[in-house]
Specification:
The structure is a single chain. By secondary structure, this protein is an alpha/beta fold. It folds into two domains: 213 residues, Aspartate Aminotransferase, domain 2 (3-Layer(aba) Sandwich), CATH 3.40.640; 98 residues, Aspartate Aminotransferase, domain 1. 44% of the residues lie in helices and 14% in strands. The chain contains 16 helices and 13 strands. Strands 2-8-7-6-5-3-4 form a seven-stranded mixed sheet, sandwiched between helices. Helix 11 links the parallel strand 5 and strand 6. Helix 5 packs across helix 6, helix 8 runs parallel beside helix 9 and helix 14 runs parallel beside helix 16. The chain starts with a helix and ends with a helix. The chain binds pyridoxal-5'-phosphate (PLP). The site of pyridoxal-5'-phosphate has 12 residues, from helix 8.
Length: 419
């Protein structure tokens, strides 16, 4: 898979037609030829940092909210905006939009499916709701979802339940958990022979918990249910191979860990399932078998969609596995220094299998909203709070450009709050 991916990008980067048409591919190639020579780990990541245009005022520890784009992605957006503005209806609709297939090929290569299985969307919310409002369900059908799913997933299913009499079965989880069989059991306990759909969040926003999607999906399918995966935090953070998972639908945002332009996402629908899902925005044939029926959005930002490609190349030039290891290292750098502080309670799984780039913790006796505010005003550190079910705390999510000196400042701040 990795070799195949390398070959694909190598071809993309070295193809002279591409270099002439898309100058930043050559630029990226040069940048990474230079960066790859760096053998010192910290200097390597410093060079990666230089590829971003980050705030000089704040330290950004809320990358799980949305990632900044690397400079090369920003340049690509500007390039296509400029090109669009020369003659919009020609350049956007007849030229740039045609490249969508290259973007989808690269995405498909990244997540292990065919480009025909994908539709470009604006975000996970849109992709999820396309499925939630598009699948054919009738009164009494059951849908299994978790109380730790993202609010929009819950809002949309609540609305569908209200309108169509669908029964929602809620999975309750005591998180964090480093026990995948426990999570699987909680899903199993809600799945019955009336279950038509099982929704699984791959990595939850609340505390970074990773769910055992493969095991849950296999069980759900064995019971005759379809499977919808919310992979908002997956693409660009962890390797995923859709063809190895028995799932029907997957939704992801590309402006999160992939660092693609804001307002970009993707929807995967398994072959054989598409005909029966109505699109949110109607096209000529709601019963069509192709994914294009999910792309009838009207006029939209093709410059952003087109610039998903340099984001993929940038991400692959680092390598997802190397990125994941760095994110785990940065998380543990913080954990190791705060976990023994008085009143600090870690609320995320810490091991690499069950945890991710997101760290949730709380300082007993201190309101997390106040702490978040103080961090921003007094320390110029941007974090967020995370409150849902049994979880309540400060959520941090460093990125590949985060320096350990920034984390030292954060740790110093935490120390002042616990004394
Ligand atoms: C787990 C999860 N699902 C869905 C979403 C929605 O993503 P977007 O705002 O890109 O639609 C988010 C956003 O943070 C999320 O964390």
């Amino acid at each position: 898979m990795i070799n195949k991916r390398r070959i694909f990008f190598q071809q993309l980067i070295t193809g002279s037609a591409f270099l002439a048409a898309y100058p930043w591919l050559a630029q990226l190639k040069n940048i990474f030829e230079e960066i790859d020579l760096e053998k010192n780990e910290e200097r390597y990541w410093k060079k990666i940092r230089n590829q971003y245009s980050l705030s000089k005022k704040y330290i950004d520890l809320n990358n799980a909210g949305v990632n900044p784009q690397s400079k090369v992605v920003q340049e690509s957006v500007s390039f296509y905006e400029k090109l669009s503005n020369e003659i919009p209806s020609l350049n956007m609709w007849q030229i740039i939009d045609k490249d969508k297939v290259i973007v989808k090929q690269a995405l498909a290569e990244m997540i292990g499916c065919a480009q025909e299985d994908l539709a470009i969307q604006r975000n996970t919310t849109e992709a999820l709701e396309t499925i939630i409002f598009g699948v054919q369900l009738k009164k009494g059908d059951e849908v299994v979802l978790s109380k730790h799913d993202y609010p929009h997933m819950k809002f949309a299913w609540n609305q569908r339940a209200e309108r169509d009499g669908i029964k929602l079965k809620w999975v309750e989880l005591d998180l964090p958990s480093s026990d995948p069989p426990y999570i699987l059991e909680q899903f199993k306990s809600q799945i019955t022979n009336q279950t038509k759909m099982v929704c699984i969040t791959h990595i939850t926003n609340w505390n970074g918990q990773v769910y055992p999607i493969k095991e849950i999906a296999t069980y759900a399918k064995s019971q005759g249910a379809d499977v919808l995966v919310d992979a908002a935090h997956t693409i660009g953070q962890r390797n995923i191979n859709v063809s190895e998972l028995d799932i029907d639908y997957l939704a992801s945002s590309l402006h999160k860990w992939l660092g693609a332009p804001f307002g970009t996402g993707v929807l995967y629908v398994k072959k054989g399932k598409r005909r029966d899902v109505y699109p949110l925005f109607a096209g000529p044939n709601g019963k069509a078998k192709g994914m294009h029926k999910f792309e009838h959005l009207g006029t939209h930002a093709v410059s952003h969609e087109r610039s998903i490609l340099p984001a993929i190349i940038f991400c692959n030039s680092i390598g997802i596995e190397r990125k994941r290891k760095r994110l785990q290292y940065l998380k543990m750098y913080v954990v190791d220094q705060i976990k023994t502080l008085p009143r600090v309670e870690i609320l995320s799984p810490l091991d690499a299998e069950n945890g991710s780039a997101i760290l949730l913790f709380n300082i007993k006796g201190i309101d997390s909203a106040q702490l978040c505010k103080d961090l921003k005003i007094q320390w110029k550190i941007h974090t967020t709070i995370s409150r849902n079910e049994n979880l309540d705390g400060i959520r941090i999510s460093p990125n590949v450009f985060t320096q350990t000196s920034e984390l030292d400042k954060f740790i110093e701040a935490v120390r002042t709050f616990v004394v």
